[in-house]
Amino acid sequence: MSPSRGRAGALAAAVALALGGCGVLPAMPEELAQSYVPEVPAPQVGSSGSLTPDGVAAAERMAVRVRNVGCGTLSVGSGFALDEHTVVTNRHVVEGSSELQVSTYDGNDIDVVTVASSSVADLALVRTSEPLPQVPGLAEGDPANDTPVTVVGYPSGGALTTSSGTVLGRVPDPLSMGMDEVIVTDAQVVGGSSGSAALDEDGRVVGVVYAGDDKGHSFLVPLSLLAELLADESAFVPLEPCR
């Protein structure tokens, strides 16, 4: 067995231990959007990518905060610009909403036009009426093991933060979101980080954060799967608001 396959097997076992009801993670709350990551201290704000004239890193300008106002509920998440009017985030961040609120790094609130999600992976697309400040672009393929990554998002719906780490390998999807394998990194994420972009050293998207555990691991929807779904016109279907 190769070292990489051995590492992936060990990681899968560790994830199963952390998520398999052994008392390591806190009890699952009723709100799905808050159950994917543990409550741990948020990482410190850092700089990533090229600075723009206003002194904000390009990697931070492309991230957005997503607030889901549901029918009697309120949850928060993150997202990033796919193009000038499209935000990528997680399905669990936007489902069950009566109103979605998207805001940029400078506090600008952008109106949402449509929301669609995929049933194959924990992904959603949010169309906006106004242009987004920065589009990071997608990498050419999934990141190799030991690739440095930076996660940019809004943990707990608060300040914009970045968290750095490396790609550790691939593991079976720990949350059974219809993916065979997902990418695992040691970049720390917390509640509200769901939907954040994971960027390579060139500031290109290599995956989408959708989960984390209390061991400091973050789990990514692979870029290859995101690209495959974006190429399929039937992959994303409109989400109905809650009643």
UniProtKB/TrEMBL annotation:
GO terms for biological process: proteolysis. PROSITE patterns: PROKAR_LIPOPROTEIN. GO terms for molecular function: serine-type endopeptidase activity. Signal peptide: none annotated. This is Trypsin-like peptidase domain-containing protein. It comes from Georgenia yuyongxinii.
